[in-house]
Amino acid sequence: MAHSLLLLTLLGAASPRAELATTMESKGVQAFNDKDFCRAAHLFEASDELLPSSSMLYNAGRAREAAGDLLAASDAYRAALSTISEPARRAELDTRILSLRARIEDPATKTTPCGPRPAELSLATLLAGIGAPPPDDDAPLSTDVTPADPAPSPAATSPAPVSPDPAPVAAETDPAPAAGEPHDEGGFWLGWPGVVGLGAGALLTVAGVSSWLVAFAIHSSVMSREQVEPAARIGQPFEVAGWVIGGTGLAVFTAGALLMTLLIWEE
Question: How far apart are alpha carbons 106 and 112 in whole angstroms?
């Protein structure tokens, strides 16, 4: 039961990286509303690096455009455009890019670059804050070769010695009932349903937990915001199946245990 509760907790919780990306987005919106446009752009870009999203690239472009960092705003819009397929959104971005190009080419336009992103918002710092490994894009390729597992020794592969079977012990048998005496069949009617209940309940519980694990694996595979909703749709049937099958298994297992307990009490 404790393992099932832990699994349900994991299923209901988002990954630390996704949670941090959402936090960066929320702080970016707040900074934009406070007219701290450069910080908003840095926060949106940090959110996109944690969990890629065309919306974050677009928001970064809006923030940089509002700050006067027109060249970087144009680059952000172009990056967002490369990930969007909807005609209406592509048309809006094309319009913004053309408008920025005209402003940049105008000699009277003054641009105000935002400067580098603060160190506390770098991807390496953010990942270190949640205990995730730092980005290794520039890490050299390892040349270490893992040695093959050694061949097992003959002693490890030979079967363990089997002790001779002990002498059979005569089983104690109950005296046969006298003629006309009722037979005690309570053990039969409690015993076999109890055994079946225990076995079937255990199998159903394992199947339910397996279904939860599949749903957890689907949620854990999310790499971008665009994948969150499809992953939720795919994982939901497995979560529901896990609840139904696992709950049924626990109920059947409990019923079998009760029957076996009654059988022991009768004896």
Answer: 15
Report if residue 121 sits inside a domain: yes
Q: Which residues contact 21 (CB under 8 A, 6 or more apart)?
A: 47, 48, 50, 51, 53, 225
Last residue of a domain, one of 83, 113, 129: 129
Please compute, for residue 22, the number of CA atoms within 13 A of its CA located in the half-sphere on the CB side: 8
- % pLDDT > 70, the chain: 63
- Measured CA to CA, the distance from residue 245 to residue 176 in angstroms comes to 44
How far apart are alpha carbons 33 and 62 in whole angstroms? 12
Q: Tell me how many domains the chain contains.
A: 2
One domain, residues 124 and 199 = no
- Does 113 score more than 50 pLDDT? yes
Torsions phi, psi for 132 (to 5 deg): -90, 155
- The label of the residue with tokens 């349900």 reads 8
Across 7-21, 92-106, 165-179, 212-226, the highest mean pLDDT is recorded for 92-106
Averaged over 170-191, what is the pLDDT? 48
| Cα–Cα distance, 45 to 58 (Å, whole number) | 10
Token pair, residue 107, equals 């000699």
Name the residue range of residue 97's domain: 15-129
Q: What is the pTM assigned to this prediction?
A: 0.50
